What does this fold into?
Amino acid sequence: MIRTGGRFAVALITAALVLVCAAGLAAGWMLQRYDQAQGFPRVADPIGDVLALRPGMTAGDIRAGLGAWSVDMARRVAPHGQVFATAGPHPAHLLLATVAASRLDNITVITRTPGDSSRLPLDCCDAILMRFVYSDLRVERPTLLSALHRIVRPGGRLAVIESNPGAPFGAGAQRLARPMVIDELTHNGFILIADFEHWFGNTYCVVFRRPDRST
It folds into this structure.
């Protein structure tokens, strides 16, 4: 009975892991389809607006996925601007392939760095995009929060776009509610400058600015 029960428990755990992995893959597929079908065409210009992207700026795309948003940002800051794109959650070679296909020469892909580094150069960016990323960084978020104030230049902007808890993209029940994101960023030295409770679909967008002088 003990052996049978042990095997049964292992089978249950294995089945649960399979379901979690399948759910994650399905969520990623749904988000990719949404981006291709309507998300990108509808949201690209508003993202450019809230980040105030213009030629000559330097922007960062944290966990850039397949890279479509990095490419769009790079076009907006061209010809003399620069985009830093950090890899994740998709494999880095997919991001690199998107960048190569764009034929743009103002995107720097950062695949990995040792330790708990933020992966972005200090004082590098006039604007940073975190799209469907912030909630996923549960373990890394304290490190990221302490680094963001040193990554964003004084006066620079940070946009966090998330699906609301219970939304279909990602593990909906694990998404952070808008007030919590606002609280965390404002307690780490950022000023809330725009709050879009109803962004597109069941998502929200909160935009912050780093004060002109360090606090």
User: Anything to note?
Assistant: Residues 42-209 form a domain with the Rossmann fold fold (CATH 3.40.50.150). The CA atoms of residues 42 and 200 lie 8 Å apart. The chain has a mean pLDDT of 81. The radius of gyration is 19 Å.
